[in-house]
Every structure is written in C-alpha cells, then in structure tokens.
Amino acid sequence: MVVMVAASPDADSPETGPPDSDSGSPDGSPDPGDRLRYAWRVVSVTSLGLVLIGIASSTLNVALPTVVRHFQASPTESGWILLSYLLVSTATLVLFGRVADLLGRREVYLAGFALFTLASLLAGLAPDVWFLVAMRALQAVGASMILANGTVIITDAFPPERLSQGMGVYIGTLSVAQLVGPTIGGLIADTAGWQWIFWVNVPAGVLALVWGTLTLRRMPRGTRQPVDAAGNALVFAALSALLFALSEAGSRGPLDPVVAVGFGVFVLLVPLIVVVERRAPHPVLNLRVFGGRVLACANLASLGNALARSALVLVAALYFQAARGVDAFTAGLGVLPVPLGMALASPIAGVLGRRLSPYTLSVCGSVLSALGLGLLALTAEADMQYLPIGAGLFLAGVGSGTFLTGNTTQVMSALPSGSLGVVNGFRVMIMNTGMVLSVGLSLSLVTGAVGPELRAQVYAATLSRLSPVAVEQLMTGFRLCYAVLAGVALGGAVLAAFARGKQVDLKRT
C-alpha cells in the first residue's frame, strides 16, 4: 500500500550513518562492523537524552504534592505545572522535525540538550508558581528538539535487520530512567528540597551535551523550505483549548460554560486545521500520512496506548499519597512496578523482534496494558493489599514496553530516509498528544469525584487527613479513571490489530 507525503530532497536526509568511506572495507563499501559500532555509540547518546527527559518527567509525577504545598498552588496552577510541559512539547515536535531536516539534525539535537539543561536550572530558582510553569514550557521546547530527532538518528544509524535491537535498548533506557525517577523524586522531595527535583537534570544534561558533541558526526544541511507557522499555531491553540476543557471539567462539570467554550473552540479549530494543512506545502500535520490503513492504524494505536499509559505513574502516586497518606518516597517505591515492567519488557521485545513481527508485539502489548489497567480498576480500594495493585501496575508496564518497541519499529521501518524527520516528528506528536490528553483526562476523572472544594487537598496529598468519607469519594474517581484507561487501551489493541499488512512505502510527491 502506498501513502503519498511530501518529503525533503535526498540531500536533507543523511543525518547519521556508517563511518566515512575511508574507514570502510577494501572494496570501498562501508564496513558493517564499523557501522554497527557507530550505531551503538549513537544509542548511548540518544539514551542519555531519554534519561534526561525520563527522569525529569517521572520525578515530578511523584513530587508534585511537595511543589504544590511549597507554592500553595491552586488546583488550576497545580495541573498546569504538568500540562504546560506536555502541551508545548507536543505542539512543537513536528516543527523541530522540519527544522532539523533543514538546519542539521545534530545541531538541533544538541541545542535541545543545552536548552533543557538551562531551563532545569532556572526552574529550581522559580520565585512563584507561574515562573515555574514558564520554565516547564521552556524545558518542553528542549525536550521537543531531543524527542523529534532521537528515533530518526537511531533509524539512520542501524542496519534494518538490527533496528529492533537498537530500538529496544533505546526505549528500555527511558524505562530505566522512569524506573529510578519516582524513587529519586520521592527521596528528593522528602530530604533535599523541591528545587533539586529540577537541578538533578543539570549534570545529566551537561554530560549528554558533551558526549553528543564528541560522538555525533556533522551532517549536511538540506535545501531551505518554509516552516508551517500557521499550522503550528493552530495546532497549539486547538490542543490548548481541549486541554483546558479537560482539566476544568472535573471540578466545573462538563456542562459548565467555561468548559463548553474550551470544547467549542477545539471543535471549531479542527476543520480549519484540516483546510490549512491540506494547502500547506510542508504541513505540520501531514494528513496524507493517514492515507494508508497500516500506517494510520499504527499511529492511532500509538495514540491510544499513550492515552492509557502516560498518566498511570502520576495517578498511582496520587493514590498512594492522597488516599493512603504515605510520604513521597514511599509513593515513589509504590509506583516502581510500572517502569520496572517497561524496563524489562522493552529489551526483551527487541530481542523477540528478530523472531516475531512488530505487529505481533504491538497487539500483545496493547492487550497486556488493558489487562493491567482492568486489574487496577478492580483493586482500587484505600485499604487494598499492595500485591494486586503492584501486579496491575507491573502488567500495564510490561504491556506498554512491549507495545512501544513493536509499534515504533513497525512505523519507522516503513519509512524512507528522506521523510524520516517530518514523519517521525508527526509520529511522536501523535503519541505526545495522547500523553497530554491522558494527564488532563485522568486528573479530571480522579479529582472530579470529590468536588471543587476538596480538589486542592488531592493535589497537595492531604485528603487522607480529613475523613474516610472524603477518601471513599476519591476512590470512586480512581476506579473510574482506571476503567476508562483500560477501555482506551483495549481500543488501542483493536487498532493495532488492524495495522497488519504490507510495509508502507511513502513516496515523494
């Protein structure tokens, strides 16, 4: 099946790859051994990028109540400490995929390290909550520059038959970062102070910048082509309106005028985005990518998995702190089964990828995620023993790690190098859109059960000190949240099942 998309000229595409010809075999062709050694060095660089981003996100998921109590943040401010990062990173992913195609992937990738590190330093110096929100948005710009290019760099560096192994290690590194992140975040929140939640990113960022500068080769710049500024602005506005509506629906109710306006703006902007993007020569949302069933279903399955997966650590950490009354460090230990499951499943799935198709890994991973979330919905009680809760978290983590390895390999293997930057940025944007909606929807479902007057107590993790009645109301929100996420994960499994078919071949228009 053929999907027609606009792609950069060939001159734009050689980003990373095998060593120069003078280090190749005697007949002038690149030495496969040298190429593979270089590919694994590339993995070490890109994995450091994921460590940087993974630790930054997972530490704050657990330590959010500590930050909220320090600034005495309102429920809206509390939500936007998380949502500002997710929104900006999602809305700029395709932009930096295009910018990297034009200015050089290495340069943009390394600039992302520098910007993320600087923003992390400034976030720890925040004098008030809205300055912190702004620095989180600046972190997101740096994260976008990293995420939009890391997968492409790996795909260009590895031989096709070894790509699943490199991708498994790459994704597994994110899982390891998310594995240590909750524990680090809880420990920092209880001992060193909330500022170090952000400052811990600084040494990792400096190390990644230095190692990336020494390892990644300089790459030729392609022909300059216009960036879709109008498309980026419209996508950002639409996501902002939708995210605001979702985040306020829990406390205000879905029929509140403010919530209705947010949803209404989103609905009005969607057809406008379609019209503008169809006319744009290099659209931020290349709708022709969805012209083929296989690639369309694979990307939609990724959206569903991200929506079901991304808020799980945050929701579980709130459960342990707000409902059970434990400290941040104990909550960090409690959510470890999620990243542990991902960390174990991702490299194993990468090895299995030499025997099983990426399609099979994607479908099985989605089903496992749905089963884990379903188990959590059944065991969401304030006095429940930890074993069934930990089993549900672990199963959901295993499913996500398996799905991510299979789905990423399935999509990236189908793309020619000339379109990798833009289409990968689009792929990651779709996935990050699921992350944004996951956090907004999950927080709304959980806190909506207790009403607006108690919502601040949930974010500050002090609700368990009030009354058993308030806690039981909150548990209703947790059960509903897990059940909705399980349904979304099951829908993702159905979409993944429809992504079976021949490799998609994207041709240049």
Molecular structure report:
Residues 1-31 are annotated as: Disordered. The chain crosses the membrane at residues 38-58, 78-96, 108-127, 133-155, 167-188, 194-214, 226-246, 258-276, 297-322, 328-352, 359-380, 386-405, 426-446, 477-499. By secondary structure, the chain is mainly α. It has one domain: MFS general substrate transporter like domains (Growth Hormone, Chain: A), CATH 1.20.1250.20. It is built from 19 helices and 2 strands. The protein has a two-stranded parallel ribbon with strand order 1-2.
What is the CA-based Rg, rounded?
22 Å
Please tell me the CATH architecture by its name. Up-down Bundle
Describe the largest sheet.
2 strands, parallel
Q: How much of the residues is beta strand, in percent?
A: under 5%
Number of strands: 2
Strand order of the largest sheet: 1-2
Order of helices and strands: EHHHHHHHHHHHHHHHHHHHE
The domain count comes to 1
Structural class, from helix and strand content? mainly alpha
Number of helices: 19
* CATH homologous group name: MFS general substrate transporter like domains
Shape descriptor reads globular
Give the integer mean of the pLDDT values.
79
Topology-level CATH name: Growth Hormone, Chain: A
Helical proportion?
over 70%
Subcellular location: Cell membrane
Membrane topology: Multi-pass membrane protein
InterPro entries: MFS, MFS_dom, MFS_trans_sf
Protein name: MFS transporter
